[in-house]
Amino acid sequence: MWFSVDFHSHVPVYIQIKENIKGMILKGKLKVGDYIPSIRALAKDLGVNVNTVARAYRELEQEGIIHAERGEGYVVKKSVEDEIKIETLEELRRIVKKLKSMGIQKEHIQSILDNEFSNGSN
């Protein structure tokens, strides 16, 4: 299995699939020209509906990250490292602003960040 999805998460499964594929590109596990599993194969591996994977792939294709090669499958079209980093940092900024508006103290946010960085996991 390539990765797993959290069915209890508030994040829709198709978005989790997209983010996992983008993460694999960022980590170098997928490179430009690499094929990704077919929609049916990934749906079966993850235990999700084929339409869920199709939506994730469709959105990745619209973003220019993958493309379909007729009769071959989906292939990684471009590296997205810079785009993903910028997008993720913007998301972090939005979350920090939201936490600030909720009255969460900087020290609490900093302790969470420190804990995540010292955790040793990627």
Automatic annotation (TrEMBL):
InterPro entries registered for this protein in UniProt: Tscrpt_reg_HTH_GntR, WH-like_DNA-bd_sf, WH_DNA-bd_sf
Domain HTH gntR-type span(s) in chain numbering: 11-79
Keyword DNA-binding: yes
The keyword Transcription regulation appears for this protein: yes
GO MF term list: DNA binding; DNA-binding transcription factor activity
The entry's keywords: DNA-binding, Transcription, Transcription regulation
TM helices/strands, residue ranges: none
A Pfam family annotated for this UniProt entry: GntR
Protein name in the entry: Regulatory protein GntR HTH
UniProt source species: Fervidobacterium nodosum (strain ATCC 35602 / DSM 5306 / Rt17-B1)
Record lineage: Bacteria, Thermotogati, Thermotogota, Thermotogae, Thermotogales
